[in-house]
Amino acid sequence: MIELKNVEKSFGRVKVLKGVSFSVSENERVALLGPNGSGKTTIVRIITGQIRPTRGTVVVCGRDRIDESVKSRMGVVSHNTFLYDDLTAYENLQFFAGIYGVDDSRIRELLEQFGLWRRRHDLVRNYSRGMKQRLSIARALLNEPDILILDEPTTGLDVEGRERLFEAVKDYKSTLLFTTHNLGEAEELCERVVMLRDGEIAYDGEIGDVEETYRRVML
Ligand SMILES: Nc1ncnc2c1ncn2[C@@H]1O[C@H](COP(=O)(O)OP(=O)(O)OP(=O)(O)O)[C@@H](O)[C@H]1O
C-alpha cells in the first residue's frame, strides 16, 4: 500500500532524510518511531503528498503521484488538523462528507463516538485543543479510508479521548501508519515497527519487546 525507495529530502542545504526505504503492506499496522527531529513527520508529509522528496520514489495505492485520487483513500491525523475554524464541527464533517459522498448518518456516528455530538454546532475556533484533535480524528475516519496515517494523534487528548481513539483504531481493519513517542501505544496498536534515527532507518521488524529494541538500537 505504501512503498518508499531511497527517499531523500533536503530543506535548503540540510538533508533530513538520507535514503529511507520501507514498505507497508495492505492491512499491515506499522509504528514509525524515532526521537525529535529524526524525520517522522517529513515522511508522513511525503506519503500524504504535502511535500515531494528530493530524491527517490514513493508509491501509495499503486500510484507514484500522490494525486487527489490517492489522497481520497487516505485518512490523516497530523499537526495540521485540516479543519476550518469558521465552520462548526458538524459543518466541517459535512464539507468533507460532501467531497467523499459520505452519508449524514456517518457524521452523527463519529461525533457521538468521539463525544462531540452535544457540541456539534459550536464553531471549531471555540473548540479546545483536545476537542479539535478528536474532530480531526473523526474527519480522518469519515470515509473509512484504505490507509490511516496517524502522526502523534494523542497530542492534546485526555484519557477518554485517547481511549476512544484506540477503540476506533482497533475497529479499523485496514492499513495503519502510526507515529508516536509512546512505545506502549505503538505496541498496543501495531505489529511492526520502523525506527528512524537522524533521517535513516535504524530498525525495521516485528514489534516484539519494543522498549528493549528501542533501548538497544536507539540509545
Ligand atoms: N519546512 C522545513 N524547513 C526546514 N527544516 C525542516 C522543515 N520541516 C522539517 N524540517 C527539519 O527536518 C528535521 C526532521 O523534522 P520532522 O518534523 O520530520 O521530525 P520528527 O521526527 O517528526 O520530529 P518530532 O518527534 O519532534 O515531531 C528537523 O531537523 C526539522 O527541523
TrEMBL record:
Q: Spell out the PROSITE patterns in the cross-references.
A: ABC_TRANSPORTER_2 (PS50893)
- Ranges for domain ABC transporter come to 2-219
Extract the InterPro entries matched here: AAA+_ATPase, ABC_transporter-like_ATP-bd, ABC_transporter_ATP-binding, P-loop_NTPase
Q: Which GO terms describe its molecular function?
A: ATP binding
Q: Which UniProt keywords apply?
A: ATP-binding, Nucleotide-binding, Transport
Pfam families per the UniProt record, alphabetical? ABC_tran
Q: Which SUPFAM superfamilies match?
A: P-loop containing nucleoside triphosphate hydrolases
Q: Does the keyword Transport apply?
A: yes
Q: Which family does it belong to?
A: Belongs to the ABC transporter superfamily.
Name of the protein described by the UniProt record: ABC transporter ATP-binding protein
Tell me the organism: Geoglobus acetivorans
